[in-house]
Structure formats: C-alpha cells, structure tokens
Amino acid sequence: MRDSCRSAMISRTRPVDPQAMDVSMSSLVPSKPILDQCLLAGFAAAGVAVAESSRHEASLNSWLESGQHGEMGWLERNVDVRLDPRQLVPDARSVIVVADRYDGSPDADLPPRSGRIARYARGRDYHTHMKKRLHQVSDQLQSMHPDEVFRACVDTAPILEREVAAGAGLGGIGKHTLLIEPSVGSWLLLGEVVTTLGIEPTGTGQRVDPCGTCTRCIDACPTDAITPWSVDATRCVSYLTIEHRSDIDSSLHSGIGDWIFGCDICQEVCPHNQPTRLTSSTPTHEAYAPRTSGRDDSGASFDVRSVLDWTEEDRREAFTTSSMKRAKLDMIRRNAVIVAGNYLNAVEDEDLRSRLIEIAGDETEPPLVRQAAIEITERTRESR
User: Fold this and answer.
1) Is 155 a catalytic residue?
2) Which residues contact 181 (CB under 8 A, 6 or more apart)?
3) Distance from CA of residue 365 to its chain's centroid?
4) What integer pLDDT is reported at residue 298 of this predicted model?
5) Edge-to-edge, what's the strand order for the sheet holding 114-117?
6) pLDDT value at position 380?
7) How far apart are CA 96 and CA 284, in angstroms?
8) Please, is 57 exposed, middle or buried when counting C-beta atoms within 10 Å of its C-beta (0-12, 13-18, 19+)?
9) Nearest-angstrom CA–CA distance, 75 and 143
10) From the candidates 103, 107, 155, 314, which is the catalytic residue?
11) Taking the mean position of all CA atoms in its chain, how far away is CA 161?
12) Phi, psi of 349, deg, nearest 5
C-alpha cells in the first residue's frame, strides 16, 4: 500500500523527452534510479528540474521593493543566487526535488483557551529530519558520480523551491503561492539537491494552474493578505506569529484568531486539500506526528493561559526538536496575549482577563508582551 501510494504521487513526474526541454543532451543520466533512491529514503515524492534562471525575477524584485517581505531582511540578500541555482552551485545542471507529506486532517474540537499550531510544526523539525535523509541521497549519488557536485538544501538555502518543484513536475503553484500536488494537495515540505550532474528532467516545461477560477484561499484569509499568486507577508498570520519580531498592528489582532504559531486557513479551505480516499490512504511521515507534551491531547494547540506564564525553560522544553524554536519567548507570549484577547471577545474568562491586566500593568514585562496586553485590555474593556 505504501509503495502504491507513493507511485500515485509521482505519476506526474515520469521522465520526459529531453529534446522537448531547453537542456543539453550530453551525458544526461536517467532520472528513475535517482527518484527510486529518494523514495527509498522515505520521501513521498521526487522529481528533477533543469537548473535554470527563474521566470519570476521582475515579480520577486517588485515584491521586495514594495516591502511585502516585512522584517525578513534575509530575503533581500543573495537575490541573484535565489533567482538561479547555478549561482548557488556553479555549473549546476539539475535540481533534484523531494517532498515530505504531513497530516492535514481537520482539527477536532479544541479545548477552551487553545492557541493553535500550524500543522507542519506539530511534529519534529522538518529542517533536521529532511536534511539528514537528503544528505544520505546526496552521499549515495556522490559515490556513484565522484566528479560531480551535490548540495542538499532544506528551506534555509537561497532557492525558489516552489518554482523549482513545479518545474520538476511535482505540481503547480496555487494562488496562495504554495505548491499543490493535485492528487494529494499542498500539505508538503520541500527539499532539494542542486547538482552539476545532468539528469533527465521530469517536468513538462508547461505551467500548471491548479486553481482555475477558485478564490477560496483569497476569500478565507482573515487579514486579506492574499492576492492571486502573491502574499503580503506583513499581513499574513504565519509571518506575524513566526517571523515578525516587533509589535503587531492592533488592526490585525482579530484576524490572528486562535493561531499562536503559524496559520493553515488558506490550505484548510483549498479544494485540493479536502479529504479523499487517496489522501486518506497516502502516507504521511511519522516524524511529523504531533507531539502532545505540554499541549492538548491531539497535539494541535497550547493552552494560552499557560503560555502567558512561560519561562525560557518552559519554551525550550515545549519546542524541543520542533521547528517552533524560531519563535522567541517574548514573541510566543505576545502571540498568546493576542489569542487570549480574541478568546475574551467571545467568552468571559475572569482568570484569563486578570492575567492580561496584570501583564499590562507590569513594567518588568518585555515591551513586546506588555504592549500587546495594554492594547488588548483597553479594547476588551471598551467592548464589555
């Protein structure tokens, strides 16, 4: 069952005639044995793209110039490298793209005062887990092709991975800017090996539009961050709760809802992500099974009242082996304050309200946490 499900996921990534692609015909090695190695390493899907310049240089530069990347200053660096994997690995000819699938099942009813966690972050840190297996694949290929260069990348390297994944035939980019594999959706984590080895490409070279006239992600976004094939990070709940290290504009507080780390709304409403017989039977990697330590029984959320009292030791323990380590203590407590305020808009909880008032009046609290509490308590006081 596991192998047949994987085959279904890579059915669209069969090798195509290289003569139809803009790629040198000299010394191309077959892609199938390499894809098989990737699947044996536990990846759910794999493909090969031609190492070439991005087609989206103008749109990326426009997005950066407009400031829609927010405080993610690292995106402004190495733009030339990001636009062409051959700048990352000189003389690169191919990019091997792999995908892990994580569970996107709908959440059951969560306990009161829950702060939800984006699904990709509920299990083990994908950076560590994927990179270890990618290095295994890379090392195997290096032993077979000692004169070639192989560089494994997971998220942190300057590469436009979703565009490359689409070029490898793994799916198409949705209007929410995420990769959609039409048969199983967008609950995917991506990794790459950039190499000087020439490999048969598995993409068709044609742009795939998985969305058509659908605008569900745009309509559902609580902060209006999405326009077709573009996301304004400064309004995106995922960015605000994970990357934004300063005060969050109070006009965006209500849109954050109950999300304490990340947001899945644009994926939850996507038609490609609705449960089907295939998605139910297609495996997700066990490493991404939600941890339950310090969380609700499903591992999907934290109790925000508890998070308000966290120490640095509490944060380290809760985030051990998790990609949530990116959020510092004052950030996650700021997020908890905002989620608590949204909860109080619907439910009266005197204990929670008293704690927010206490934080707002405590000059020893970190400014990031205290300012959020001041804004929340003033707003909830006015609405009572």
Assistant:
1) yes
2) 9, 12, 45, 99, 170, 171, 188, 272
3) 31
4) 83
5) 259-261, 114-117, 301-303
6) 74
7) 20
8) middle
9) 34
10) 155
11) 11
12) -140, 100
Report the distance separating Cα 384 and Cα 379, nearest Å. Answer: 9
Question: Which tokens go with 344?
Answer: 């109080």
At residue 84, the pLDDT reads 98
Collect all residues with Cβ–Cβ distance below 8 Å to 305 and sequence separation of at least 6.
113, 340, 351, 352, 355
Decide: residue 146, CB within 10 A, 0-12 exposed, 13-18 middle, 19+ buried: exposed
Which ranges of the chain have pLDDT less than 70? Answer: 1-26, 280-281, 382-384
Contacts of 131 (CB under 8 A, 6+ apart): 152, 154, 191
Residues 376 and 333 sit within 8 Å (Cβ to Cβ): no
Are 262 and 339 in contact by the 8 Å Cβ rule? The answer is no
* pLDDT, tens digit (0-9, with 9 covering 90-100), for 256-311: 999 999 999 999 999 999 987 777 667 788 889 888 877 878 899 999 999 999 99
Q: What local confidence, expressed as pLDDT, does residue 18 receive?
A: 44
Amino acid at position 88, single letter: L
Tokens of 196: 């000087």
Residue 45 near residue 13 (C-beta atoms within 8 A): yes
Q: Which residue has the tokens 């998605």?
A: 279
Residues 186 and 382: their CA atoms lie apart, in Å, by 41
Give the model confidence (pLDDT) of 144-184 as tens digits: 999 999 999 998 899 999 999 999 999 999 999 999 998 88
